[in-house]
Structure formats: C-alpha cells, structure tokens
Predict the structure of Sulfurtransferase.
Amino acid sequence: MATNEPADFHAIYNGLVADVRSEYLSSSQTFPWIVGFSGGKDSTLVAHLVFSALLDVSPSRQIRPVHIVANDTLVESPLVSAHLHQSLQEIRNAADTLKLPITVATTTPKDEHTFWVLLIGKGYPSPNSQMRWCTDRLKIQPTSNYIRNQVAACGSAIILLGVRRDESEARRKRIDSYGNGMDSRLHPHKDLQGAFVYRPIVDLSTDHVWEILASHEPPWGGTHDRLIKLYRDAAGGECPIVLSQEDAPGCGTNSSRFGCWTCTVVEKDKSLQGFVDSGNRQYSPLIEFRDWLREIRNDPTLRQGRRRNGKITVINDKLIPGPFTLDARRMILERLLQTQQAYGDTLITEHEIDTIQRIWVNDLLAMNTPGDDA
Ligand code: SF4
C-alpha cells in the first residue's frame, strides 16, 4: 500500500484541508454543502477533510451549512450498514459537541419504492442488467430529492463527492469531460438543476486515500480502523454515492462489492461471501436467499403473461414475461420470512408487509388496471 514517505502524506493531507477550507469560505458561501456519504473510503475521506477544515474556521465565519447525507436502500449489506450508521452517529455527536454547522441525514426510498414492495408487492422480476429498476428508486431518487429541496430552499447547493480519476478509465474520461461552472473547483450537476459538484479528492490515487486515512484519525474521534477492517473482510470495493445512472456503472457489478445484499444483478455477492469467509457465518442464509432469488427470475411458470399495465410484450415472436405471479410473490415472501428467522434480525419490516398485502388485494381486484409500466 505504501509508496511514499509518511511525511508526504501529511503534506498532501494539509494541502487538501487548506483547499477545502478556502472553498468553504469562497464567494458561494450562502449555498449549503451536501457531502454524499456512503461510509466507503472515498466519501469518508471527504467528510474527514470537511470536518477538519471546519475546525479551522472561526465560529463567526462558519456561515455555510454542511449536510452529511447517506442513502440507506434498506437492503444494504448488513456489516456495511452497521458501519455506516455508526459513523453517522459519531459524526453527529462530535458536530453537536463542537457546535459545528453540520446536519447529518439519511435518505431512504419512498414506502412504495422499497426493494421488497416492488419485488414482492408488485412482482417486479429480480433485477438484472437489462432491467435494473432498483438503482433509480433505491438510490438516485432519495438523494436527488434531498438535494432538490436544498436547492429550492437556498437557491443552489454544492454537492461534495469523493470521485477520483484513478477509480477507472471510464471515471477519468467522465471527469475530464466536465466543463467548469461558476468557479474553477465547481461544475454544474448534469441532472440536478441549480446544483454544483465539488470533488475535493479528484486527483488522489487509491494508495493515497488509504495512506491518509491510516495516518490521520477522524476529527470526530476514534480511528478509521473499522473502515479498514471492513474493506479487508469484504475483499475491497464499495458502492459510491449514486446521483445518476451514469454514476452507477459499479452498482450491480462485480466491481461494486458493497451494494445491496439482495442484488441479483451480480452473479455472486463477493462482498457478503467475503464477510462469511472471514468468520461472519450468520450471513450464509442471506447468500442462499439471494442465489435462489436470482435462479427463479427466469422460470416462466412464476411469471405472468401480461405486464402490470395489462399489455402483452412480444419481441421477435417471443413473449416477454411480465411480473412474478401472485403465487410466486407469496412464495418469495414466505422464503424471505424463513430467511429472516434463520438470520435472527429484521430483513423486511411489518410496514412493508402491510404495503405488500394491500398491493396484492388491489391486484386481485383489478389485475389489468392500466397505469403501471413495470
Ligand atoms: S446494488 Fe444491485 S440491487 Fe442495489 S441498487 Fe445497485 S443494482 Fe440494484
């Protein structure tokens, strides 16, 4: 991991904190900052830099509000979810104690858009690469709505992302294609009108990120050891903050090892398997359930002929099956509840089960009501 002398990393770190501080105090300072926080290494480093920079600004100049916003899909990989929520609580406690202008928030999918309500309630087939209905509803919409609300309230908002050129060739090309916006560090967000993007660690290498995290304790207290262990146990990778489909090339691929535990887009869940291999055997029932959910996706006996809008889709003389049948949805719920019992913790909430049962009743009453395009 180490490629340079430790002193270099201190200099790089100090330079980054100074840059973030100067941007915080720049002319756009009436506009809130929104730090997209996934609990992964890159967004943790951005939150770390922002917190440190704020400690370096006198209270009278701490005018700009900062929001540290995480998105919880409600089907996050359990160890990642525990780490995420613990980190948020630590940041919240320290920010309150130090009276910093930081709000910590978690966004979640709407009640009618959770993974279980769409899969088991409406019968959406387990997502695959052709029909990845989940990313928008579970990740993009909740965070985008939070940002839109800030833009509406404050006239604009600046999103801080932990994206870096060396994450991948595709990421480098995308970053290089951005024009600059209102000043050299910001560029307008492509999909969220009135929002700008600031990328404080865009030129850091992965090694630099790890070196800085390992050699600088978080300003909210404790160490980054839990994060480092998490990556070690899951064999690396992360699911970054997702604000558009283009932001999500790794969502539902083997390079995204910190995605939803239910993700059937990937062939194997290497992250969860990594946790099991490193001793967390309690996750085995989750892996078995996910594998089963992936297997049954293309069983024609479990799918309706018609889509939810009542239409039949035929492509090249081939019938494209619609959602899971009601019997299949009941079977999936039953198996999920058995998995939940074996796992010993909540996987689906009572509220989701109520919502699912309401949808089933409506589907029984009006199977072919138009208006739902899944
Ligand atoms: S990780 Fe998988 S299930 Fe979760 S939003 Fe991404 S593609 Fe969908």
In short: Residues 73, 127, 132, 134-135, 138-139, 251-252, 259-260, 262-263, 265 surround iron/sulfur cluster (CB under 6 Å). Residues 6-247 form a domain with the Rossmann fold fold (CATH 3.40.50.620).
